[in-house]
Design goal:
It is built from three helices and four strands. It has 109 residues and is mainly alpha-helical. It has one domain. The longest helix is centred in the last third of the chain and has 23 residues.
């Protein structure tokens, strides 16, 4: 199991890498929907999806052990936590920056 600063994360290093990669992937999806006005939206959404994935997989005790597991990472609850927390964060960032979900997609440069 992976330990950070003598704290057991609850999954292996490979599973933690999978969690980070999934968070970046899920966090990048909203960039292609509507009009993005903030270049930092990806960072906020990816951080929230990472936190949501970890919370969904590890932090809720018995409720987190639903579905298939890979090296200590419960995939179903991690994806659910990532999508829920990532979506809430993206809506907040989009609302605060003046973006919208209805216009043509445009990448922030």
């Amino acid at each position: 199991m992976l330990e950070l600063f003598s704290w057991d994360v609850g999954m292996s290093a490979i599973a933690a890498f999978l969690l980070v990669a999934g968070a970046l992937l899920i966090g990048a999806v909203p960039l292609f929907i509507g009009e993005v006005r903030s270049g930092y939206g990806l960072l906020a959404t990816a951080a929230a999806t990472l936190a949501g994935g970890w919370l969904g997989s590890e932090a809720f005790g018995g409720m987190s052990t639903i579905g298939p597991a890979f090296e200590g990472l419960y995939l179903l609850t991690a994806v659910l936590g990532s999508v829920v927390l990532g979506a809430l964060t993206d809506v907040a960032v989009r609302y605060l920056s003046g973006g919208s979900y209805t216009s043509q997609p445009r990448l922030v440069t």
